[in-house]
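Could you show me just one protein sequence together with its fold in token form as a worked example?
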Amino acid sequence: MRRIALLSMLALMGVSMFAQELNTYRRNALTTMLVYHPEDEFGGEIYKAFDSLPIPDKYDDHSVGIRVIDNSTISGVQRNESGYYKATYGHALTKDELRRNAQYTEDLLNQNQMGKRMVAKWFGLQGDTPETMTFNTELIQTRGQYNATDVDVTLALQTTRGLATLSDAGEELLHNTYILVNDITYVTAEQEAAAAKATVSVIGSIFDAFTGGNSGRDLSNTVAKIADSFTGFKVKTHSYLYQLEWNDSIAAIFYQMHYTGKPDPAKIQAFLDDKTTYRVRYVAHEYEFDKKSVLKGLYSRTELVRTICARSMDKNIVALAKQYEDFKVKTPVYAVLENDKGHIDGYAAKIGMKEGITEASKFQVVQRVIDPKTDKTTYRYIATVKPVKGKVWDNRYNAVLEEADGATLPYTTFKKVSGGEILPGMLLIEGKYRKVTE
């Protein structure tokens, strides 16, 4: 039988560093949001489906308690003049309409200080009033695999090495923090037949959390007219990706003027009052609509919508990761696989069809290296691998329930195409990654 070279064996050989990286490699941080359309017949079902789905497990959950943009609460806005464009059935949004929608959403996110909220979460802002509020670096320490003294801001600002560590944390962690806004609508068999119902929604709304309303959450007042049959039910998903702006200038303002590990009302108030420093910016858009999507197996109505929505968003995330360099997923080599004769038979990784893996995919294997003098992180190229035919894990939502091919595999098996020795804990990155050195 095939044998697996486990991390415990490698640790005995003096490479326990890989075991640490396998368990705590640096993921990108992500929060997901939904444009909720209670005016749509199945808007309530889509909302419930989205609200039940977790952040994809290849990203760190950076949710800040706001996940819904309620389209029904919009007021005082002239459609088609302020960035709101809602396509009708049979008419796709134009590039200009998408650009306006994306820009308006960026403005909306920044007006409601989503960038500041994400920074506050990174630095553990806690307390009830400016007099009691403080920051800490516990989350950065955990996600970045730093020790406590490395990210002690007071000490770090006094040394070149400490500043390098803070800079590394900013580039690797804060800079790679994202908001994904999903505008999900649908097409039913009846709509396709009649070609009479507007289905693609508009980006734009105001947040319940900032208005004191509860229209986004109070689904009990929304009567969804659920059809008896979901045959032909397909979702149309526009995903807009936004990135937290973080650079040396912003970091300097934060560390010098706002960060405090002990009560300092003046610094905290300055942070709370700042309306311009901490922002997010629009970086990419992706659209997913599979006209031929067919699901095997039996589902309840709610589970069917949840499954379709989950897979649609996963497809968009995969496409965005390929499109936008910094959004690429890094996942560790889980194990080195050996055959009965002790020869390497492949490499296992816990990714699969959910992450868009096909037998034609190619990955770089890289090793994360920390410069002992500067504490800066770099990535060194090790090898190139591709999936083994018939060994791609189907880890899509509900694939096991559907008894899909590959759903019972525990991982995807890769084979080496070129390069050097691959060890558990080294990272797989699809395609070519520009931050890799030879």
Summary: The radius of gyration is 23 Å. The chain is about 30% helix and 20% strand. Residues 73 and 211 are 10 Å apart (CA to CA).
